[in-house]
Amino acid sequence: MARRVAVTLLRHGLTLENQQKKYIGYSDPLLCEEGRNELREMQEKESFLPSDVVLSSDRKRCLETAEILFPGQQIITSPALQEIHFGEWENQTYKELCHDRHYREWIDDPFGTCPPGGEHFHEFEKRLLSVWEEEIWPLAEQNGHVTVVTHGGPVRLYLSMFAPEPKEMWEWSVSHGRGYTLVWKENKGRLNALCTLLQEAPSTVKPSG
Question: What is the pLDDT at residue 171?
Fold first, then answer.
């Protein structure tokens, strides 16, 4: 069993809906061409921590991201890594929703208010904790490092739980195609343990020549 355990959390690449500032949770758009090009450039010029295992949300934008950044590697999919479900607000923008009373209540209290037909934050949190315990951490223990390609919400949730620097979930900034590597020493990465090292991912530039 590995003594040093690392988990790299990456947000998927850019989609047209992201550019349009739409809520896309369970929705399943592909990456836009700009997003694909950004990832190809990243894969060519920057380096990620080597990983024998890539675990991805089953949404197309995540699978495309994993395939571009980690060509030729086996990708394991997990529906439990999906973004929170925005219900009736999926594929709508703030401008389209801002006059909706229920939406304004959710903006004021996203942890206590549930989107109509969507997923309550506590259900989302429970789902992500379960996939950490049942899928992510066992793979990390077995292999020493696992790369997880998911969405902005899950990445921010895990950072708010495990990062050594205390921040609220929404205080974390996670760009498309990028994320963080969390490192634990001596297998202490359970739910009650903060990681001992946090690095941006990708963290290095490939040498030219």
Answer: 95
What size, in residues, is the chain?
A: 209
The CA distance from 111 to 105, in Å, is 11
How far apart CA 84 and CA 51 sit, in angstroms, is 26
| Phi-psi domain of 72 (left: phi exceeds 0; alpha: psi -120 through 50; beta: other) | left
Phi/psi at 46 (nearest 5 deg)? -120, 160
Quick one: tokens of 169? 């979930």
Give the Cα separation of 194 and 176 in Å (integer): 24
For residue 91, give both structure tokens: 């594929």
* pLDDT band, residue 209 (cuts 50/70/90): very low
Q: Which two tokens stand for residue 200?
A: 């941006």
Q: With contact defined as beta carbons under 8 Å apart, do 195 and 164 qualify?
A: yes
Task: For residues 54 and 58, give the distance between their C-alpha atoms in angstroms, rounded to a whole number.
Answer: 12
- Give SS3 for 208: coil
